[in-house]
Design a protein that fits this description.
Layout (H helix, E strand, L loop, with lengths): L1 H17 L6 H24 L6 H18 L5 H7 L2 H6 L6 H26 L5
Length: 129
């Protein structure tokens, strides 16, 4: 299930950020950031959530990763700037630091963690948080 969620989230993020479908700039900018944070969460969730009680931990780790990557944008080493100028660099790291991006990551991760915990309880019948 996490692999499908990663694929759908990744495609949604690319569409939100790069396909100009007439959506407002706010939706394009922060929707893409939210999808990026959500993608990190699904990756961490796939690796970490094996036992009850790990959904919240996965959310905190994901938020920490997203926050660390955002602060990495403040580092301007030449090789890092070169990578940020490539499509993989734009998709993985982004280019410009923004506090609002950190908020978008944490909000998306929080919503996904609540949804994930509910799904685990509903379909697997175990305590997930």
């Amino acid at each position: 299930m996490p692999v499908a969620l990663m694929a759908v989230t990744g495609m949604a993020g690319v569409v939100l950020r790069f396909a100009h479908l007439g959506q407002p700039l706010f939706v394009r900018k922060y929707g893409g950031s939210a999808m990026w944070g959500l993608m990190i969460y699904w990756v961490v969730w796939a690796v970490m959530v094996r036992r009850p009680g790990q959904v919240a931990r996965a959310a905190v780790v994901s938020g920490g990763i997203g926050t660390a990557v955002e602060f990495l944008k403040l580092v301007h080493a030449p090789w890092l700037e070169w990578f940020r100028g490539t499509l993989p660099g734009i998709l993985l790291l982004g280019r410009y630091f923004a506090w609002a991006d950190i908020l978008a990551y944490w909000v998306a991760i929080g919503i996904a963690a609540c949804l994930g915990a509910w799904l685990l309880r509903r379909f697997l019948g175990r305590r997930a948080v």
